[in-house]
Write a structure and sequence with these properties.
The complex is a heterodimer.
Chain A (H helix, E strand, L loop, with lengths): L2 H35 L11 E2 L6 H42 L4 H9 L6 H11 L5 H8 L13 H26 L2 H9 L4 H30 L2 H6 L7 H10 L4 H26 L6
Helix pairs in contact in A: 2-6, 2-8, 2-11, 6-8, 7-8, 8-11, 10-11
Chain B lengths: L1 H8 L8 E2 L19 E5 L14 H9 L2 E5 L5 H13 L8 E5 H9 L12 H6 L17 E13 L9 H6 L7 E4 L2 H11 L9 H16 L3 E5 L3 H7 L4 E5 H10 L3 E4 L5 E9 L7 H11 L2 H11 L8 H8 L13 H4 L2 E2 L6 H15 L2
Parallel strand pairs in B: 2-3, 2-4, 6-7, 6-8, 10-11
Antiparallel strand pairs in B: 4-10, 5-8, 5-9, 5-10
The chains are: A mainly alpha, B alpha/beta.
């Protein structure tokens, strides 16, 4: 190995240091403390302190007690991700291929909601979907909703809120992928007698897969753990696992149960993501 | 599963386990620099004081009169959240850089029990001992007023929108009447809502057994499963009530008075089950640096004319005797308001929630959050 090569290796390691330190401080340490907390003796309290008793039953209890909100979160997150993909793909495609000189403006508009707070945006959905509001009244007038029907405090409102809030996370990676596609490849498919539909599924879609994979991950993972949408737009019957963890932690002060449930959620998501990436066959992405 | 557990238990994690959070206030005491350092740091709930900028505001007058400069922050939004915020410091005898915090009864009781609160010097707060109204004296968790001074007090009852529904007279009705299905909210403060639920199942919230608690929780779970309860909320219920998303709810008296100014159809009801009486209390946390300044503040707010000025703006129950007479001069329309100056008859139906020990707290709060979803 030449001197030059060796030095290049050392530079590589040096460049890793800032991010590695950051992650050790803000990910490894909290993660370790979370893991330890999840194994505390559940009969502890703030008064008495907590003993480390390697209480693995915290996990089985958490699963028994909270499998419903856990499953519900995965379903809501999954549906919201699918809706984001449908809406986002069309939008990203239009921005990349059809927008011409409006491209940059449209991209700014996609990001624009981030200029206001997440909370304010979700609260404004409460106004839009209000029982006496224009949306509900219109749906009632065309009999899509019964006279006593409503949207707030139903799964519809929660999923709509999730879809809205996470849509930009889907659109941006999709746009980045679609925008890179070489138009000549699509033209070539036409030259080879593929009609536009076949051309889309044989050329455009496979080439945009990296964007689809990263977009769905960026949407699904935070959507599953979200609790603001369920809290503001749903009723207690729509609660998601994020709000269960939050209330176990801050209200019940049941730290072992909250930590165990967090660990379960994390393991579940990591497992699902790994399977998904395998299936999507895009390991080179990561 | 047992096999996995056994093999995982072999994995040992070093240096963990936390010790108890109990402290001794006599040990965790800072030297009082009030005399040389004329500052006071107060943490209170939002919209809980008359507008501070005005030169005649209660806060400005306090500063002018004492020369103490007050750094006032409204960073208490939720008892449990605030507890989580200061817990690590107070549990290990570290300062939280505040001289006064204002928390609700049950949280005040918990912090006093944990030894996180400094005793007040009775000689420096004579107005408190002289003027505190009778119903707020002799609380089980600090009967001699050694650690706390109520800032404002309030009643929890029922509110409804008279233009949308008929009179709602009891909690039982609220959680069972079919025309209210999905159109009511309850409060996310466990003691408020469960106090009423215990009453509904015939128990006494000031003294109940765990079997009675179980009945009350089951009753509430039934109402939630039936879709009767739309949400468990903090202050935001009042917007939903005005907007018509809900037609009735469990409500705090002061919120209802303020909403009535805009919408006279909103009514406050004393439910058949009674009223829950609570207060938010001023306390000096351990290692506060300006305890005497904090005591000067407490003494000042227990002067009847100051208390009346505050009550005229905040609209909660004024805890100060004699403020009612002072209110004649400020706003005579509020003098006979039972939600600001309740008489004995109103308060005769008020109930208090039993103090819980630490294990009960974890258990009951967990039952509660299982039903409400947090």
């Amino acid at each position: 190995m030449s001197d030059f090569q060796r030095r290049r290796g050392a530079v590589g390691y040096l460049l890793l240091i800032p991010a590695a330190l950051w992650l050790v401080l803000f990910f490894v340490v909290p993660f370790y403390s979370l893991l330890a907390t999840s194994l505390y003796d559940p009969s502890g309290s703030d008064f008495r302190g907590y003993q480390m008793t390697y209480e693995w039953s915290n996990y089985t209890h958490a699963l028994q007690d909270y499998w419903q909100p856990l499953v519900r979160s995965l379903i809501y997150g999954g549906v919201a991700t699918l809706l984001c993909l449908l809406l986002g793909y069309v939008l990203a495609y239009a921005i990349a291929f059809k927008a011409g000189r409006w491209k940059n403006l449209l991209l700014v508009l996609v990001i624009a909601p981030f200029f206001t707070s997440f909370l304010v945006r979700t609260l404004s959905w409460k106004l839009i979907l209000a029982d006496d509001g224009i949306v509900v009244n219109t749906l009632q007038a065309v009999h899509l909703l019964g006279p006593d029907g409503r949207l707030l405090a139903t799964p519809v409102a929660v999923i709509a809120g999730l879809t809205y809030n996470f849509l930009p996370f889907m659109v941006l990676p999709l746009f980045a992928s679609i925008d890179k596609i070489d138009h000549r490849l699509i033209e070539a498919s036409g030259d080879l007698y593929a009609n536009p539909v076949v051309g889309f599924f044989k050329v455009t879609w496979p080439l945009s897969l990296p964007g689809v994979v990263s977009g769905t991950l960026l949407t699904f993972i935070p959507a599953v753990g979200d609790f603001i949408n369920a809290q503001l737009l749903g009723s207690p019957n729509q609660r998601m696992v994020g709000s269960v963890i939050q209330s176990l932690f801050t209200d019940a002060n049941d730290y072992p149960a909250a930590a165990a449930l967090s660990m379960i959620l994390m393991v579940l998501i990591v497992a699902m993501v790994l399977v998904y990436i395998r299936r999507a066959g895009t390991e080179e992405l990561l | 599963m047992a096999f996995v557990g056994a093999s995982l238990a072999a994995l040992k994690l070093p240096f963990f386990a936390t010790s108890g959070a109990q402290q001794d206030p006599a040990q965790c005491r800072a030297t009082d620099s009030s005399a040389s350092d004329r500052n006071l740091v107060v943490s209170n709930w939002p919209a809980y004081i008359d507008p501070k900028k005005k030169s005649t505001s209660t806060l400005q007058v306090f500063e002018d009169r004492t020369g103490i400069s007050v750094s006032y922050t409204d960073d208490v939004n939720d008892n449990a959240e605030f507890y989580a915020k200061v817990k690590n410091q107070l549990a290990s005898c570290q300062p939280i850089n505040r001289d006064m915090i204002i928390l609700t009864d049950w949280m005040a009781a918990r912090m006093i029990g944990l030894g996180w609160i400094q005793p007040l010097d009775a000689a420096k707060v004579p107005n408190l001992h002289k003027n505190l109204i009778e119903p707020l004296r002799n609380r089980q968790w600090d009967p001699k007023l050694q650690y706390h001074a109520p800032w404002q007090s309030g009643l929890t009852g029922i509110a409804y929108n008279a233009s949308k529904t008929q009179h709602v007279g009891s909690f039982e009705e609220l959680i069972t009447r079919s025309d209210l299905k999905g159109r009511i909210t309850l409060l996310s403060e466990m003691r408020d809502t469960m106090g009423f639920m215990l009453k509904v199942v015939g128990a006494n919230p000031s003294k109940f057994t765990s079997a009675q608690w179980g009945n009350a929780i089951d009753k509430l779970q039934g109402a939630v499963d039936a879709g009767q309860v739309r949400a468990f909320t903090g202050n935001e219920y009042i917007q939903d009530l005005a907007a018509g998303n809900i037609v009735a709810c469990e409500a705090w008296s002061g919120d209802v008075i303020q909403a009535q100014f805009d919408n006279p159809d909103i009514k406050f009801v004393t439910p058949e089950e009674g009223l829950s009486l609570w207060s938010d209390n001023m306390m000096v946390p351990n290692l506060a640096q300006h305890q005497s300044n904090a005591e000067a503040w407490i003494n000042y707010y227990y002067e009847p004319e100051v208390a009346a000025k505050l009550a005229a703006w905040v609209n909660y129950i004024c805890p100060v005797e004699g403020a009612r007479q002072e209110m004649e001069k400020i706003d005579p329309s509020l003098v006979d308001n039972q939600l600001i100056f309740p008489d004995e008859k109103t308060l005769s139906v008020a109930f208090d929630f039993m103090p819980l020990d630490d294990r009960q707290t974890v258990e009951y709060e967990r039952d509660w959050s299982d039903v409400t979803g947090g």
